[in-house]
Amino acid sequence: MNTKMKRTKVQSLYSIALIIGLILSGTVEVSAQKWLEKALKKVDNALNEVDKVLTETDKVLGNPVEQAGATPGYESVTVKSFSADVDFVIESCIFDGKLLILNFSLNNRGKDLQMGSFGGRKTLLMPNVETKFYDDLGNAWQPAYVTAGAAWRFGTDGADFGLPEGVKVNGSIGITKFDRKATVLQSATIAGYIRDDTKSESNGKYTPFSISLKNVPVYKAKQLLGRDKALFTKEKPAVEGGKPSDCTVKSVVITERNTQVNFTYTGSYVGNIYVDDFASIHILAGGKRYPLTAAFGIATNKHQREFYAGGSQQDFTLVFEPLPKPSETIDILFDDWIWKNVRLLDPVGLNIPETRGILSLDDSYDRHDNRRRITAMERNDLKINAIKNDNFDTKWTNSQLSAGKTIYKGKEGSLQTILFIEKEQAVNEFLVSYNPEGNPVDCISIASISAYGGDRGEGLVQGNTVTAYAGYEGIVTYNVYHITPELKFEFISKEDPEED
């Protein structure tokens, strides 16, 4: 018999007994109205005392107290906690294709509790209750792991942890091989026991309890990710630097509420990757950080890794705070992995007509030995001392330098070649880019001609590409560079016939 039924019976019996007692005791007033008012008042006062006693009994006996689902999306859930002082709240219930993860929180408004075997199976300490979940297809499931606070336990043993007064404790229950066709956990029981170290084992040290759940929606990760309207999508974006060879960016989706980056991992340690620290994983765009908020299809701590292992490929999604608009490029930082300049928008790009530098493959040193050298004013205009390149020495004197050729000049800045003439040794041509303010941005070597050897070189600029040719005894090799909208030179490839 539950407490509510007990209370009703006690109230009825007490009312009858009190009225009979009043009649037999001769306290009935001459006025029937006054007598009735006094009788009812005494009954009401007595019933209030009964309610207090029964409420305290509820807490001691652990009779279930019904709660309504409060988290958005889980309003249909019915929760019955073992105590009026302990709230059990479902934060989420999501199946990501590998694991069904039920995230929850516990909040204790009463005295401190020591929870044992939370989410566990039947044991000698709790022989009549066990943790089990039933879906809408009739399948029964038990946990593969349980967490609560810092406690973690694999299998069906359940977790042991403290539940202090006034402290919210977060936890999760994971179920493997869940039926992807199931949409609801129709009913569930989460069992455990409360340990009271002030009592002996024979005198109630261990008190079994259970929490029951009904009508818990099961959301699929793809369903959650797809519910927001996509404002921008870029499939297979180009990544211009730092990209891990075993993990590629499949797509970037920007919605009103988040930014979703989909990856494919094909490394030799499938299942070993996991999200270790949410705070350190972020997107950089326009100088601002956009932190990670969720992850699907990947372990979110080191303990979950084994559940994602197996196979030769792993697809997963990292969800970040929303970008206000698509940047031309973004950086993605995930622990030791960095994807630099993930290109979301195709660059406007330069469209320079085919233009060659000063030196050529059929050139000779003697043709340039007597070129006019730069003046002090030209050195200042070309910002020679601010040029940065390992092969370009800003200590070279004006008598060693010659202004070469202006390759391009526009709103983005300019491209200019500068020659270093080493007396009776060689002449080298460098391509320098300048921003609109005239300050150097980048510098690369595009050609070199030896005074006595057979080395020859030639630089070609076309569109937004630079090709630096080098020839020796009829064999020509070349390096290819991409000119970014910021006028930086990014190495793309090297072609060497001798390596084929």
TL;DR of this structure?
The protein has 500 residues and is mostly beta strands.
Word description of this protein:
The protein folds into four domains: 3-60; 65-223, Sandwich (Immunoglobulin-like); 228-343, Immunoglobulin-like; 352-499, no CATH class. Helix content is 13%, strand content 45%. The strands form five sheets. A nine-stranded antiparallel beta sheet has the order 15-17-18-21-20-19-22-23-16, with no helix packed on it. Strands 1, 2, 5, 6, 7, 10, 12 and 13 form an eight-stranded antiparallel beta sheet that branches. Strands 9-8-11-4-3-14 form a six-stranded mixed beta sheet. With 500 residues, it is mainly beta. It is elongated and about 125 Å long. Mean pLDDT is 85; it is low at 1-20, 22-30 and 52-62. The chain contains five helices and 32 strands. Helix 1 packs antiparallel against helix 2.
Attribute tags:
mainly beta; single chain; 5 helices; 500 residues; Immunoglobulin-like; 8-stranded antiparallel β-sheet; 9-stranded antiparallel β-sheet
Provide the β-strand percentage band.
35-45%
Indicate the structural class. Answer: mainly beta
Mean pLDDT: 85
Share of residues in helices? 10-25%
Q: Identify low-pLDDT runs.
A: 1-20, 22-30, 52-62
For the biggest β-sheet, the strand order reads 15-17-18-21-20-19-22-23-16
Largest sheet: 9 strands, antiparallel
Task: Indicate the overall shape.
Answer: elongated
CATH architecture of the largest domain: Sandwich
Count of domains: 4
Report how far the terminal alpha carbons are from each other.
86 Å
- What's the CATH first level of the largest domain? Mainly Beta
| Number of helical regions | 5
What is Rg? 38 Å
